[in-house]
Amino acid sequence: MKTDLRTELPLLIILGALFVAAAICWPQAPDRIPIHWNIHGEVDAYAGKLGGLLGLPLTALAIYGLMLVLPRLDPGYPNYSRFAGSYTTIRYAITLLLAGTYTIVLLQTFGVPLNVTMLMSLGVGALLVVLGNLMGKIRPNWFVGVRTPWTLSSKAAWVKTHRLAGWLFIAIGVLTALLGLLQPSWYVAALLSTIVAVSIYLVAYSYFVWKQDPHRIAPAGTTPNGDNGAAGEN
What we know:
Blueprint: H1 5-25, E1 33-37, E2 43-47, H2 49-73, H3 84-109, H4 116-135, H5 155-182, H6 187-212
Antiparallel strand pairs: 1-2
């Protein structure tokens, strides 16, 4: 997978804008910066100027760098070229969510009233919908997607699990956005329960598809010969 300036420049501009915003806000910013909100949108954690104004920009920069480097460390690196567009979209979606979150932090720092719960729910919901639409396009690798022992050793398990995961991610994304708009008292419990249930189901589903795949591959080192194929006879 190749990267070029045309792809990276918008991301670098967004990242640069976060640091520029931090520099502009630094002189007027208070000593306590809001960094976390509870389910009711009330601030329940603060940080000093350094952590509050630079924490998210540095996190976004670190994630940007990590997502550039990880594919090159992946044994499945050649497959990244087969979903390069989807991987780039994922990188953009994550960066934009972090930039949006930082915007909320700055606005709240300077007293602008916002419904943080609703905004963050819409942002996370949108990210999940984007990921859901891309899941079916991701090809086998060790870092992106639903990576279980069974999806990594069966093409059928990988493809079918990711197609199902795509629909489930979209459903969870829509649910997250709706709950953020309605904000019922059972919001967090419902969302966490759904995420746990979906995660368990996907793991189990990948196993059952793998179990039925006659072309599944044994993990390295688990056969008598220590290779990935069937053991030969002496």
